[in-house]
């Protein structure tokens, strides 16, 4: 029982939160709004409804190639990062690792370091090592920033179920491999799916590392950046941005639903 | 099926101490691929960057020597420390504004929303997962000379001439960053608010504390870990941001990330760029440590 908690459906705090949501959403929603506007300038009043920018977008070869590159990098990054993230998460949640806090902190460094520093230091090393910049180097950079995310997602998942289950399986005569395959893997599955989806979106949307680590093949954000200089390309960029917004939203909602469904399922029996 | 999951409580190290070292070894084996990857692709490059900052650039060539010339240049030219200092100030302001705006919303979800908290959380963090570049760019088209706000106000007849004070300045950078990093503030604050034991609030109420009093003396202090986490998650990355100042900052909103980039790009002086990066990293760390120290001193004195 809290004193002073209002019973009104709309409180001051609720109103504020709705306004705050508007602040978060409105700027982003201008992109789709103007992507259907029949004018080259992004300005009011709206001129009329058109699909022409979406058609222009679909016709652009550079854009399609960049899209394909982003998807390739994103898929590779999400799989590789999830493998590394899961291994680390399993090690931290199931074993007593000496110095586990500093090691965990070190792996999480990409979350709290300016990306530009990460980008240039990787670029310098690759340059000194004589490795040419390409989609592979972009993927490497993305793996570095995705592993901590994957590790955190997987740790929260693995902490949710019990070591006892794996021990029980082994006591009942399962080999370690079969234990992993029949107990650990299915239980970790929602976390794995969430991690794959989140790493994919991070990679797909990431600009700064890709900007420094791209060779002559651009990912989508790098391509968009190169187009921002040309005012007449702007509406197509808005169309593209709208598609990316919708796709990212769908992927993230999926990831979140899968993760939360998975986490909550065992608790429902309580 | 659910029952046996619930009954097996967090198993202690029941297997006994004798096989601990073998267990630890297995754990380390499991951890090693990730650790090696991060050492090679994160630790090593940063060390190389530090090494590079002591090299010298002459024309097109880098000379691998051990010279402090880049650091001397950094501090002798007033412009570098000035921009770094301003970047830190901008980011501090951004963190403050972001947290101030995010706190009530996080509080609302944690305390007032009874059902479907997940939906609120997803709703509030969703835009964060969409392209950073596009979110920043959205502000450029909103605040621009012929942008959404100006053309909207003109077509409504409120103003005749476009307002020029909105884009290409510090305020634009602060607003854009406070928008772009909102999720990083909301989530940690929400988590720490959610963790607060509700019986403490009841106790405060029973002991005669009003809602305002119990907020400032119970809720706020207990939410501090989340606020601090939010501060670090917003402050540190934004100091080095490159996209926002470039798109909406103009000349007065330029930040240290732009200077670093220009040394690696047009300026073609990698060692100098490396030195600027290193000084930035050290400064950011120093500011963060200084702040945390101050905070814990303050906390000690209060408790």
The portion of residues assigned to helices of chain A is over 70%
Number of helices of chain A: 11
Radius of gyration of chain B: 25 Å
CATH superfamily of chain B: MetI-like
Mean pLDDT of chain A comes to 85
By CATH, the architecture of chain A is named Orthogonal Bundle
Question: Which structural category do the helix and sheet elements of chain A fall into?
Answer: mainly alpha
Report the sheet-strand fraction of chain A.
Answer: under 5%
Number of helices of chain B: 14
* CATH-derived architecture of chain B: Orthogonal Bundle
Oligomer: heterodimer
How many domains make up the 3D coordinates of chain B? 1
Low-confidence stretches of chain B: 1-17
Major β-sheet strand ordering of chain B:
1-2
Number of strands of chain A: 0
Q: Beta-sheet strand percentage of chain B? A: under 5%
Q: Could you tell me how far the N terminus lies from the C terminus of chain A, measured between alpha carbons in angstroms?
A: 25 Å
Please describe the biggest sheet of chain B, giving its number of strands, its sense, and whether it closes into a barrel: 2 strands, antiparallel
